[in-house]
Amino acid sequence: MANGQPLWRLAAKSAEIYLSTPSEVLLKKIIIIMADGGDNIFIYMGGEQVVPLNVSHVIIDRSVKIIPARAFYNRRELVSVKMHKGIERIEDRAFCSCTSLREIKKSIGVREIGGNAFHCCVSLICGIW
Asked: Which of 15-19, 30-34, 75-79, 120-124 has the lowest mean pLDDT?
């Protein structure tokens, strides 16, 4: 805080998506935080959650242990991913064709990375493993 004012503000937006399966109805929430600079930060909750195509920054929720195959496939505006120590596996093509992806933070716990998980991530310069 500077002079009692926050240095930056976040406005949270969420949308509810109802997905039907033969046996149950699932409720999923998409949480996108808009930062003052116009960047959006997506909180990835895992499972069958659909990642918006225009996402630029992702924070992986602490409940996520596995990043599924193709979870972030072809998210060309994705620049950074912040993981946590509890991520155990990144499956095949999880980040394939994320051509703007430059950095992945706090991925220390990852024990297995699937084939082509970062294929065509031509901008990736920083990964903390």
From this structure: 15-19
Sheet with 66-67, edge to edge strand ranges = 66-67, 89-90, 112-113
Structure-token match 């997905």, residue found? 19
Residue 89's contacts (CB-CB under 8 Å, 6 or more residues apart) are 65, 66, 67, 110, 111, 112, 113, 114
| DSSP letters spanning the chain | -BTTB-SS-EEEEEEEEEEE-SS-EEEEEEEEEEETTS-EEEEE--TTPPPPTT--EEEE-TT--EE-TTTTTT-TT--EEE--TT--EE-TTTTTT-TT--EEE--TT--EE-TTTTTT-TT--EE--
CATH number of 10-127: 3.80.10
What predicted TM-score, i.e. pTM, was given to this entire model?
A: 0.71
